[in-house]
Amino acid sequence: MERVFNNFSENFTKPVCDAWRRINGSARRVALVGLVATSTRAGIVHAAEPEVVADGRDDWTLLYRHPVNHQLFEQLSASGNSYRLGPRRGVITALSDVSVGTQQVLDASSEQSRYHGWFLANTFLGVRPLAGLDVNLNLLMLNPSASDGYRASGFVHPGLNLHLYRDLFNLDRHPVRLDIMGSDLGWVTAGNGLLLESAPLEGVRGIARWKDWELDYLFAGRGYWSDDDYEALSLSALKRKVQLGLVNWQKYDPPAGAPPVPGATQQHAYYATLGTRWPIVPWLRLATEFGYRVDKQPRVGVLGRVDVLLRDRADYAIHLGYQFRFYQAGFGPRDRMLTPTWAFNSPMQQDAYVTNPFEYFGLSPAYDQWSHTVMAEGRGRVGFGVEVFANTELWVRFARSSTVPKFAVYTSEGFRAPGQATNVYYQAGLRYYPWSLLPHRLSVSLTNKQVQAAERPTDPVQRRFAPGNFYLLALEAYL
Amino acid sequence: MKTRQWLTSAQFVEPLTSCLLASCLLTFGCDAGAPNEPEPGVATVYVTGARDAVPLHPLRLAVAWQRGNLADERWLTTYDTRLRLLQDRLRVPLTLPPLSMRPTLTDASTAYLECHTGAQTIEAPVVSPRILIYEDVDESGDLNPDLPYAPGIDRVWGISERAVFPIVAFSDLDQVLSSLPMEGAECLRSVTNGSYSSFFQGRYYSGQLMPSGSPISTYIHLSATQYARVLMGCALTNERGLATVDQVRDESEQRWVDDAIAGDPCAESAGTCTRGQAASFVLPDIVANLDPGSHQNTECYVFGNLDALLVAEYRLVCEGCLCHWNGVHKTWIVDSSRPPKAWPCGSRVKYCATPTDSLWKVPNTCSPVVERPE
Known about the structure:
Chain A has 479 residues and is mostly beta strands. Chain A contains 4 helices and 22 strands. The longest helix of chain A has 21 residues, at 2-22. In chain B, a hairpin with a 2-residue loop joins strand 10 (199-205) and strand 11. The longest helix of chain B has 18 residues, at 9-26. Chain B is elongated. Chain B is 9% helix and 36% strand. At the A-B interface, strand 12, strand 14, strand 15 and strand 16 of A face helix 1, helix 2 and helix 3 of B.
C-alpha cells in the first residue's frame, strides 16, 4: 500500500509541484488565489471584479454555478475562472465544461433516467468585435444515452446571445449604462425566486444602470407553460439589495376541463413584488420577497431565505440555508390547474434546488401552499486529491384546499393535495482531483436527484427530477 | 379619478390576513387539514308503479351492491332505511363499501372519460350500486332478498333502472386521481358535479360507459309484491352482459294430447308427445310476466271441438353474468267439452283467433290476456 501512495506521489503530485515552482512570484500569487477558488469550483466574487449583468445564478449555494451566455471575457477574468484556457481580453474567447458519465439505478424498481450514459460539452464562444458589442454562442452538445446507438442521440443545442452595451450619458458625473441582450437569456431567476427561479428562458432583456440603481426589463417567450409569456420590469437600488418589480404573466386559461380554445383572448396575471437581499455579514445573508397578484382577487406570495456560506476556505466549504415559501391560493399565474412543464432538461439542471415556483404553480388555483426547505451542502478535502462532498435538500411542503367542497389532486411528482409531504434530496460521494490545483475530476456519488428528460432534452416534461436512487460516475473537465 | 383596484383599503385586508397566516405558517403551526376522503353522493329516486299497494310488512329502501352470481348472489348494503311514506321522489345517500370489500363486488365495469388532458381517454374502474325498495318480510331490518337463484325472505318491490343510465362510482377515486395530471382532476370534478365524490351518473354510448354529466337520479318502478321476484344481478348493460342476454340458445317442444281425440296428433310434433287422459294433465301455473328472469307466454286457441293451450316458457340462464334464454314450448290439446280441472282457456286466458285451418299450425303471435289470480 505504501508503494502505491509513493507511486501516486511520484506520478501526479511531483510534476504539479515542479510546475508550481517554475511559476514566478507574482504570477504564483495570482494563480494561488485562482486555484484556491478553483478547488471549490465557485469563485470568490470581489467587488473589484468585472460585473456580470443579468446574472440569475444563485450566489448563495455550493451547487455549481454554470457559465452564462454573455460577457465571457468578464466571466473568464473572474478569479474563480483563472484555470480556464480562453483569453481574458481580445476579440474572441471561449470556454467549455465537458463531462461524460453514467447513472445507474440502485434498485430494480427504479427506472433508468434518460441520462444513463451521457456526454455533455457546454461550450461558449464569445466574439467582441468592438467595445459595446458581444456576440455569444453557446453550443450545448450532448448525448443523453450511449444505449441509443452510435451517435444516434447526439444533439447540439445552440443558444445565441447578442449583447449591446453603451454608456449613454453621465448623470451626476456617473454614467448611465444600457445593456440589451437576447435571445438566449440562460437560467433566469426573477427577484429572489418567488415567481421564477433558475428557469431557462429565451427572450430579450434590457438593463439600465446608474450608480447603485438598476432598471431591468425582461420579456421571455415561455415561462412554465407552452402558452405563456413572462414580462417584468424591476427597479433595484443599493446594488440590488432592494428590488421593486412589476410582472405581467400572459397566458391562455381554458375553461375547466376543456381544451385550449384556438384564438382565445389572452389573459394576464399582474404582480407587484418587493425583494430584499441583506448580507448581514460576509457569510450570512437574509433575503425576502413579497409578491402581490393584483388582478381579480388580490393574492399574496411570500419568500424568506437565510443562508450561511463558508466558501473561501482552502480545504472545505459549507452552505446552510433555509427558505420559507407561502403561495396563497390563486397567486400562481394560471386560473385553472394546469401542469407546468420544464422545457429544457440537461444534467446541468441538477445544480438547482428542487424547491422552485414550478413545483407550486400547478396547484396554485385551488390550494394554499407553504413550505420549509433546508439546504445543506458541504465538501472537504481528505488528502490524496480526494474530496468528500454531500448536497442535501429537505423540503417539507403543505397544501390546503381553498375550495368548497374540497377536492384532491396529485402533482406529477405524486404529491397529494391537500396534504403534507416531506422529501429529502441528496447527492453524496467522492471526487478525485488528479491535479490537485485544477478542477478536472473524477466523481462517484449516490443520489436521488436525477434530471427527468424525455427522448430529447427539449421535450417538455412535467416533473424535473426522476424518482429513484442512483449511483453516478462522471469525468469532468473545465476548459 | 377612478381608484386603482389594488390600492383600495378593503382589498388590502385579505392580503394582510394572509401575512398573518404566513407568520403562523413559519412556525409549522398551521395544519394542512387531514387528507380528504371522498364525500357521499346523493341520488334522486323517482318512484313509479304500484304506489297504492299495501305492504303486509314494513317497506324499506336500500342501496345494495352485488357480490357473487346466481346461487352465490349476495348483496352488501351500505344504506338501509324504513320507508314510512312512499313518496314520488326520494333523496338517497350513496356511500361506497369499504375499500377492502370493493374487489368482491361483481357489478364492476370500466368508465371512459374524455377529459382533454392531452392524454388518451381515461379508463377508470367503476362499481354500480342498486337502489331497491323491498318488503321486509322477516322484519329484520336487513335486506335478505328473495331472488330467482338465491332464495331469501324479503320481497323486492322494485329496483333502480340501470340499463341506460346507471349510477356508478369510481372503485378507488384516489387511485384514479393519482394516475391523472391535475387537469384530469379538474375534469373528474366536473364529472362528479363539482364535488369530491366517487359517484356520478353514467350513460351507455356505443356500448361504453361514460359520464352523463347530469345529476345522479334513477327510477324505481314498483311491481306487485307477490310476483315481484326481481332479478337484481346480471341485468347491467355492460361489457359483461350486453352481447349475450336476450339470445335464445336452447328451445324444445313438449305436447300432451287427450286420448279421446281421434287421429294422430303427435305425428307433426317436433319434440315429445304424450297421450293421456285430460284429467291427469298437470297444467302450468299461469302467472303474469313480472319476473325479468323468466318469461311465460300463454295462448289459447279453439278449433272446432278442440281446445289448445300453448305455453312458451323462457328462463334466463346465467353463468356468471353471461346469460341466455332457454325456451320450452308446451302444448295441451283437449276436447272442448271435457277440459281438465283448472283449464285456463276461456276464463283466465282468453282465446286467440285461429287464423289457420289446422290446429297443429297455430301461430304463436297472439298476445295473451292473463288475469291476476285472486
